[in-house]
Design brief:
The protein contains 22 helices and 18 strands. The strands form three sheets. It has an eight-stranded mixed β-sheet, with helices on both faces. It has an eight-stranded mixed β-sheet with strand order 13-12-11-14-15-16-17-18, with helices on both faces. Strands 9-10 form a two-stranded antiparallel sheet. Helix 7 crosses helix 19. One of its GO terms (biological process) is fatty acid beta-oxidation.
Length: 601
């Protein structure tokens, strides 16, 4: 019979063995040693062990240079780490953390050997993010002391640690490693055993869809990455992140996720297999989705796919005046952006009163910019003077570019475009800000579909740098060139994409949000743990449930329905929990309750 685990509180985990001294193992060893633990680093490769020691020496030397460590601190940290090529060096460890390659055979062999080496009460932790902790535990002589301890790369910097329990794991083991994670200054999140756990479970589905989007030639790698950085505030674009993680590693994780879920969104995009088998695994190989200065370098260099500066676009049409249709936050924000850039702006709404209210909102926004020192009072006054508020679209007769920002309703937009077609002069560019509706349907409501294009701004328009430029199959080259030039003048980053639901950002963002809802619906993890995991493990500015409540659950559900209808993938079907909350009127912050409750103002 297995020896029961003793209460961990009187004897904290002090001696810890780390098996596998690659980048992750080295990082974990550094974190442990800095927290005062005795560390035994084990790797079958003596060269890898030496590389680990050299990395620790270099890292701690930088700490001294930056004033974070004293020379004595550094000496003590290095003295707490010893390395070995023999697994028997783990004999006295209180905890063993295995971070060997993602292979059942390799990990099972290590666990079997450890069974005959370590003490009965020693906890065995696997660092896997793709393989079943339960399967590894079941092969152990004492499955109750096996769990997952998933650090994120780089381990010294990333605060998240996922503590993974199988159905066999003893609560005392979970408590012991959770307390250790807290002592290391980390944020432990308790999760069950399924491939990817929380952070990678959500992250890799999103990365896979980005790879598939690129493979389909829907958008360039640069535009996909820029769209997600600028549209969602992410630290890296998905394709650059795949190169950093390793294309082969991503493929392994996705294979494991798909084997468990059978969700097509987790089936690895074929390009991941092609790149992996060609040895183009990302930064470590010097080439993946991008080409790098050298293997291991993060410096991207030009290659055959890098777009040329200027891009050889057709000359655009002259734009001196702009009409903005609508009276909401988006319309007033877009009008402010154009007026700040020196354009004469006609802001038209369904009534004079609504148009004047929208202009007053712009005045308040400009006043805030003056108060914060971002704008002079004179510049603010000049900007406001460039905006003419009107209650009739007839005043668009002289504009060179008309941008609609009315309700996200196709019939409403079609009627507006039919009206603009009659009012606007020949050669005027007509743009829709839709985020989910077909641009071509707006174009077909006019007699000049070649002049119609999508300009998807992000809210708040004055602050957000991204504009998705959406060409239909009918859009003229010079109309596309005009909008690209205008984006440059208003200091926005334009990305090109085709006319399909969600464009780039929403097509990648909302399936990720939907999958987060499914995790809560299935009682896999809590709202707070999922939000913490994505902020701490993925570098997201907001957790998925924070973001859903800000965007509005009704808006989110509408976009998810459009994506599901367009792509017909069962994995894109909106989570029933989201539909139930919307039906109950819990729409997020705007109603005081969504996934969380908010104080009413």
């Amino acid at each position: 019979m297995a020896t029961p685990l003793s209460d961990p509180s009187p004897s904290p985990l002090q001696t810890i063995a780390v098996v596998g001294l690659g980048t992750m193992g080295t990082g974990i060893a550094e974190v442990l040693a800095k927290a005062g633990r005795e560390v035994v680093g084990i790797d079958i490769s003596e060269a890898q062990a030496a590389k680990c020691v050299a990395a620790l020496e270099s890292s701690t030397a930088r700490g001294v240079e930056r004033g974070r460590l004293t020379e004595q601190d550094r000496a003590e940290i290095l003295a707490r780490v010893r390395t070995s090529a023999d697994l028997r060096a783990a004999a006295d460890a209180d905890l063993v953390i295995e971070v060997a390659p993602e292979s059942y055979e390799v990990k099972q062999q290590i666990f079997r050997e450890l069974d005959g080496i370590v003490r009965p009460e020693t906890i065995l932790a696997t660092g896997t993010n793709a393989l079943s902790v339960t399967r590894l535990a079941a092969d152990s002589a004492r499955p109750e002391r096996v769990l997952g301890l998933h650090f994120f790369n780089p381990a010294p910097a990333m605060r998240l640690v996922e503590v993974v329990s199988s159905v066999l794991t003893a609560p005392a083991a979970v408590t012991a490693v959770t307390n250790l994670a807290l002592d290391l200054g980390k944020e432990p999140v308790a999760v069950g055993d399924r491939p990817g756990f929380v952070a990678d479970g959500l992250l890799f589905g999103y990365l896979n869809q980005a790879a598939a989007m690129y493979e389909a030639k829907y958008a360039s790698r640069e535009d996909i990455d820029a769209a997600m950085r600028l549209g969602c505030g992410l630290p890296m674009g998905p394709l650059a992140l795949l190169d950093l993680i390793g294309v082969d590693t991503a493929r392994t994780v996705l294979e494991a996720m798909y084997a468990a879920s059978r969700d097509r969104l987790h089936a690895p995009a074929p390009i991941l297999k092609q790149l992996s088998e060609a040895g183009l695994t990302g930064r470590k190989a010097g080439r993946g989705f991008y080409t790098y200065e050298a293997p291991g370098s993060g410096t991207v260099v030009r290659d055959a796919l890098t777009p040329l500066e200027g891009g050889g676009l057709t000359p655009g049409r002259e734009v001196a005046s702009v009409g903005v249709a609508g009276s909401g936050t988006m319309a007033s924000g877009i009008a402010e952006v154009f007026a700040k850039a020196g354009y004469e702006v006609v802001l038209a709404a369904r009534s004079e009163e609504k148009a004047q209210a929208a202009k007053a909102r712009i005045g308040k926004s400009l006043a805030r910019s003056v108060d914060k020192g971002r704008l002079t009072a004179e510049a603010a006054a000049e900007t406001l003077d460039r905006i003419t508020a009107t209650g009739t679209y007839d005043d668009f007769a002289g504009v060179d570019l008309a941008v609609e920002a009315v309700a996200e309703d196709l019939e409403v937009k079609r009627q507006l475009f039919a009206a603009l077609d009659k009012v606007c002069k020949p050669g005027a560019v007509l743009a829709t800000t839709t985020s989910s509706l077909p641009v071509v349907a707006c174009a077909r409501a006019t007699s000049r579909p070649q002049d119609v294009i999508g300009m998807h701004f992000f809210n708040p328009a004055p602050a957000m740098k991204l504009v998705e430029v959406v060409r239909t199959v009918l859009t003229a080259d010079d109309v596309h060139a005009t909008v690209r030039e205008v984006c440059g003048r208003i200091r926005k980053h334009a990305v090109d994409c085709g006319d399909r639901a969600g464009f780039i950002v929403n097509a990648l963002l909302f399936p990720y949000l939907n999958n987060a809802v499914k995790m809560v619906q299935e009682h896999y993890a809590s709202l707070d743990d999922i939000d913490a995991a994505m902020k701490l493990g993925g570098g997201y500015p907001m957790g998925p449930f924070e973001l859903l409540d800000v965007v509005g659950l009704d808006v989110s559900l509408a976009i998810e329905k459009v994506l599901h209808r367009e792509f017909r993938d069962p994995g894109l079907a909106p989570a029933p929990l989201l539909e139930h909350l919307v039906a109950a009127g819990c729409l997020g912050r705007k109603t005081g309750r969504g996934f969380r409750e908010y104080a009413r103002r």
